[in-house]
Amino acid sequence: MEQANALILANPAAVFGAVVVIILALIGFIINLQSDLNHMKKRYKKMMTGFDGGNLEKMLNSQTDEVNKVIETQNQMQNEMNKMNYVLQKAITKKSIVRFRAFEDTGSDLSYCVAFLDADDNGVIFSTIFARNFTRSYAKPIEHGRSPHYKLTPEEEQALNEAMNNKREN
Q1: What's the pTM value of the predicted model, to 2 decimals?
Q2: Residues 126-154: what's their mean pLDDT?
Q3: In degrees to the nearest 10, what's the CA dihedral of 44, 49, 55, 59?
């Protein structure tokens, strides 16, 4: 320590010059920091002011409100879609027609069976039998791919199977 004091006392001009250089460097550093700070303040003010003069907080609140409206609308649309899907499950989506000749003495395949089913294989089979002197029509309910109350004819079974398997679309 005594040597440093002796060196400083022996060269006061050099020490003074070094201190001045250090002080000038610090002043330059402070000026540079102040310039950067001013630049950041300008950017902050610009960022906090929206395009229409509103501030960022108002803009974010407005965007949040819009997002909440979109979410609400999306939820309503999802509910409606769920209702539509339920209705579609119950709608007639499978069908089949089988034409056949019920009696040998009739012309072409005038008799027919039509199966109409929903997605759960519930529905109805309509059958119409044509003969020379009469026509008969029948309707048989179908529950889960079967007729619980009535025996099905081979043609009705064919129409039912085709509708359930969607083999034939008419």
Answers
A1: 0.54
A2: 92
A3: -100
